[in-house]
Amino acid sequence: MKRGIQGQLRRQNVRGEPYSTFVPQPLPPKPELSLGSELHDLLEQANRALGRLDGLTLLLPDRWLFLYFYVRKEAVLSSQIEGTQSSLAELLLFETEELPGVPFDDVQEVSRYVAALEHGLARLREGFPLSLRLIREIHGVLLGGGRGSEKTPGEFRKSQNWVGGSRPGNAVYVPPAWEGVTGHMGDLEKFLHDTGGRTPTLIKAALSHVQFETIHPFQDGNGRLGRLLITFLLCAENALSEPLLYLSLHFKRNRERYYDLLQRVRLEGDWEEWLAFFLNGVLETADQATGTARRILDLFEHDRSRLESLGRSAGSALRLHYLMRRHPLISAARTSRELKLSPPTVGSALRKLEDLGIIHEVTGRRRNRFFAYTEYFAILNEGAEPIGRQETAPIATGGTT
Hints:
mainly alpha; two-stranded antiparallel sheet; 6% strand
């Protein structure tokens, strides 16, 4: 249903150049949503998919392991939408401080996303409500270091921002003037807390994401924080016990449609089309995440069985295999430290896994060598390749191309 413009366009002028800011009306939409049978069915399917994904966390032998990598994959994907070129491999290496030369600015930005997500989840588990105060806290962590640290982390903006173009006069979209931001965000907080009536969680997440992006309350980091808001809402309302849904993969794969639908909601009021896009993303991504977890568990069991067939010589190789489940990119030196094994013993274990095709060396060096758990890393990295850049290997001697 197209309701017409979902707010007001207010004419402004800067240095003689006119432009219009968009002032959104509060949620929920008016007239109210018309779900119809197709959207009702899609909502039910998406809820079931979320339930399957959440139930899987109870069956995982190492829940922390899956959470660790899913969070980092979401961080990489969300940051790539904003233009960073950091990869999952670079983030993992940056965090272990093992490989100098990893592109610092981009990967630090992704690392801040991980820190912001972990901070927000910790606060929610302490019983802190999903509120404007918490949103500002999370923003402070997100922009607390590296690029963006000079753009008032943790504070609503005090100037006009815009999306696309070089200035408000030629921008694709201009959010409301800064003087109204606190009021608009206050209205959004009331909607999050069901002040005007209960809204189903997934519908609330879909509507709130659009509203946050429309208000664009911060000077920088709005896109990333708007996607984080989806995760926090799903966890705060117990739709997920852990943040295992990475919707940024859906948004990344459909970037043009994603941005087009945000604008269509604002100018035409087509909330139902946006809901269909969002719920399809939840359904597809949740089912994909469930399937990915099962593929990884099957891979671990298959490779462990192959190593056990080596007989008495399998001991150190099995220990190495277990370590690489936690560190799918690892150096020979770190392997020796972690397993408390001599370099020759580690070298022998690495060769056994290489001979079976379980791992491969990725630097081409004779010293300071790194190894990747080939198929495991490939599964983790699906969809997380940097936009506009292909990687020929997780890392390479001269960097990626």
